[in-house]
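Journal club prep, shared notes

We agreed each person brings one worked example of a sequence with its structure written out as tokens. Mine is endo-polygalacturonase. I'm keeping it raw so we can talk through how to read the token line rather than staring at a rendered picture. Sequence first:
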Amino acid sequence: MASTVTVFSASLLVLFFLRSVDAAEVGSNVFSVQSYGALGDGRHDDSKALGDAWSAACSSEKPAVVLIPKGKKYLTKHITLAGPCKSSILVMVKGSLLATPERSDWSKETIRHWILFSGVHDLTVNGGGSIDGNGNVWWENSCKTNSELPCTEAPTALTFHSCTNLKVESLKVVNSQQIQISVEDSTGVRMSRLSISAPEASPNTDGIHITRSRDVQVTDCTIKTGDDCMSIEDGTENLLVKNMVCGPGHGISIGSLGDHNSEAHVSNVTVDNVRLYGTTNGARIKTWQGGKGYAKNIVFQNMIMDNVWNPIIIDQNYCDSSTPCKQQKSAVEVSDVLFKNIRGTSASEEAIMLHCSSNVPCHGITLENVKITVKGGSADAKSTCQNAEWKKSGPVSPQPCSLTN
Ligand SMILES: *[C@@H]1O[C@H](CO)[C@@H](O)[C@H](O)[C@H]1NC(C)=O
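Then the structure, token by token:
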């Protein structure tokens, strides 16, 4: 009897403990930025408090939580949160991290990053709060907004560099200075339930940028932005992008690859169950002339497009330059690409463009169950192709040009 009572009261104690803290914090050390002197008034610089909370958490022997409390705005400058850490780390963003609006707070060395996580193993960032890049001042001073201004670099809001076993979940990322989230040189990445937004006119605010990373999954995200919703760059291998909503923005892009005669490798990318609204592109692969390497084993499937300017596009003559790009012999080879179950409307008449290189033609392109019409039905949707070897499976409308033309 006595032992039953003991067990019973012990369970009560455990229950009480579970109720009094977040489940995720059980058994962890919690390092709140408030305990390290942060004010959270949105004006005072809380960078040092965040850095100190991180350092304490990172040197903890037990799994640690860095807490950004709810209901407050913590203003920070450029900050590097570096590993390796002694144990796993959870950064729980319940309130908001707000970037300083002073451009002079960045130096030449730090200008590419606002919050940079570097070399961390077993890192989770979540909490439902927001990461606010306060980007207005950067957009106003961009040469893409005002061509009289010199082109300068601007920070990426959230960068994960050399991280392994990374989870980024349930966050709002808003108004980034430039790229919103960048994943670089990382392995084993899960990103989900992210709500990412910046105005349609904000320059270069790519939603999620992935490079030199493998085994990455991006699921259940909503992205509204001024540039690519996702840019999938050189060195991406084994990527799944699933259940996404994109627009406004420039769509889901692989590339641009092979700029400045560089070598690029992208393989095994699946983009599945994506809706795009009013984007400039839908499913896109873009490469510069003169590059080397490949983009292969790529699937774009189950996509619904509404009023998308270029719904399906492979462009091997990509040229985002103020001067025309010259003809070059080499190119990043594009092969084994499946566009399957894609339907919706195109804002332009060009619904499908397979524009491949004459020296390195695209091959293994399959179109399966594709139906795209021009928005409003004012004209028939068209397609154009050059140097593309493709086949179809099931109905495809509009059908690309035949191999011979
Ligand atoms: C391709 O990538 C997926 C993740 O999207 C992975 O599960 C699968 O094993 C990869 N396939 C190969 C052949 O590596």
